[in-house]
Amino acid sequence: MVSKPMSSKPTKPKTTEYSISDLSREFGVTTRSIRHYEDIGLLTPQRHGLTRIYTPPDRTKLKLILRGKRLGFSLEESREIVEMYDPNQGNTTQLKHLLEHIQIQKGKLKQQLKDINTMRQDLIEAEAACLKALNKIGAVEATQA
Amino acid sequence: MVSKPMSSKPTKPKTTEYSISDLSREFGVTTRSIRHYEDIGLLTPQRHGLTRIYTPPDRTKLKLILRGKRLGFSLEESREIVEMYDPNQGNTTQLKHLLEHIQIQKGKLKQQLKDINTMRQDLIEAEAACLKALNKIGAVEATQA
DNA sequence: ATTCATATTTACGTTAACGTAAGGGTAAAC
DNA sequence: GTTTACCCTTACGTTAACGTAAATATGAAT
């Protein structure tokens, strides 16, 4: 956390702030990556001079980006997710557009769920076959999780 | 399908075979991609002269690769999946190694399931907010799926 | 005063996963 | 016999998502 012993009142950490390395450490990504996300407009932190200052909304956006990455989303795909979180638009066409995107994302997730489940089943079968082969050999020491 | 009006017996399509464009069409990927998967050793089709001939196991491997892609796996990650499907190894250390990989994959899938569920929830909320905003405006025409 | 630790920008380098010609072979169809 | 529809190889090009210096600034600590 960026600790700033401001002029007077040291109480009330009302507005939580993070430095780039705070976020870097918390999420296990490089500062380079975080800056890159800014380069392409996914994050827009404030500045104190040149130094970047991240707020909780920024942190949330980063979280969304990284979750997207774990699901194999490109940064452009994550952009849509991030923009959904960003409550900035109001007009009808934009809202409808957004709804479409939401449906598309839902569809993707649905497909991923199917894929995950079949893959899980495959893994379970592979595991069974593996264990069977193992104790057929005689390696009785169990390898459990 | 590669139709080969062989010498005699036209019956018994015992050994199903696919051409590269068969698979390309079926899965909606370019032949370039399929060849690329071969370049890096993920597929090893037979040859009839220069022409590639794919068998059902090849097809399955391709399916595994593409499923991996949808889940955001790199080709190197998918290689492990494909090798799990390939029933080629027998010795104890290899089997234990394989078991480890299986556990790792299971862990990844578990994390992905978590991510998908939270993201789903987010989408549902975004959708609700969106719809609310819409009929607050007065666009009564429902946009449903 | 100088050493950290952490911040910045600019800019070239890298890897994965193909795309995209360019050039050529074969076999059935017209 | 030449057009059509596939197939092939070699090889350079491209995009995304950063990695990796290099050179510089800044505030706190010794």
Short description:
Two copies of one chain form a homodimer. The first copy, chain A, has 145 residues and is mainly α.
List the helices and strands and how they pair.
The structure is a homodimer of 145-residue chains.
Chain A: H1 20-27, H2 31-39, E1 46-48, E2 51-53, H3 56-70, H4 75-85, H5 92-137
Antiparallel strand pairs in A: 1-2
Chain A binds a DNA duplex (30 and 30 nucleotides) through residues 19-21, 30-33, 35-36, 40, 49-52, 74-76.
Largest sheet of chain A: 2 strands, antiparallel
Most extensive contact: A-B, 42 and 42 residues
Succession of helices and strands of chain A: HHEEHHH
Quick one: how many beta strands of chain A? 2
What is the beta-strand fraction of chain A? under 5%
> Treating each run of at least 4 consecutive H or I residues as one helix, how many helices of chain A?
5
- Please identify the oligomeric state: homodimer
Keywords:
homodimer, 145 residues, mainly alpha, two-stranded antiparallel ribbon, disordered N terminus, DNA-binding
Explain this structure:
Two copies of one chain form a homodimer. The model of chain A is unreliable at 3-11 (pLDDT under 50). A two-stranded antiparallel sheet of chain A has the order 1-2. The first copy, chain A, has 145 residues and is mainly alpha-helical. Chain A is built from five helices and two strands. Chain A has helices spanning 20-27, 31-39, 56-70, 75-85, 92-137, and strands at residues 46-48, 51-53. Helices cover 61% and strands 4% of the residues of chain A. Chain A starts with 19 loop residues before the first helix and ends in an 8-residue tail after the last helix. In chain A, a hairpin with a 2-residue loop joins strand 1 (46-48) and strand 2. The interface between A and B is large, with 42 and 42 residues. Chain A binds a DNA duplex (30 and 30 nucleotides) through helix 2.
